[in-house]
Amino acid sequence: MILEIADFRIQPGQQAAFEAALRIGIATALSRSPGFISARVQHGVESPERYVLLVEWQTLEDHMQGFRDGPLFAVWRGHIGSFFAGPPSVEHFQAVPLA
Amino acid sequence: MILEIADFRIQPGQQAAFEAALRIGIATALSRSPGFISARVQHGVESPERYVLLVEWQTLEDHMQGFRDGPLFAVWRGHIGSFFAGPPSVEHFQAVPLA
What we know:
Two copies of one chain form a homodimer.
Chain A: E1 2-9, H1 15-28, E2 36-44, E3 50-57, H2 60-68, H3 72-80, E4 89-95
Antiparallel strand pairs in A: 1-3, 1-4, 2-3
Helix pairs in contact in A: 1-3
């Protein structure tokens, strides 16, 4: 399993519309891509234009080849892309065992 | 509930020692602070010197006043601070309901 962390900055005052677009994009595109496990969206307290999307995928390839190079990515970005104030930062992570 | 997202860059080649220090710091300091709920640590795939710490707190004050202004913070930073390649980025987030 791999965790995608995507860091978005949106245009001021668009929070409610962006959150609605995220819900639609997750339901209609992101969550339908093979290898998708779960998604959480977090909204910034100190930076109200900042959102962090945490997506669990089965593999890195499920995200990068399956989703980003596949047909659902244009649907996803079609919903949320117009809100961005700049290019999102997206990287992948592996859990560090703590026990 | 509030999510702290802390973004660390460490010095190259120190991953194993940093992860050991994190485990000790979480067990002996972070997790003992009032209002602490859970911690996860994520290690960067594209950026192997990058770690993201996700900490759930009951309230923002539990983190900022209770922990950061309290006696356990020096213990925590004593374990992990020497590994940092720069100042960590720390902000707080609230979950956006998706359903």
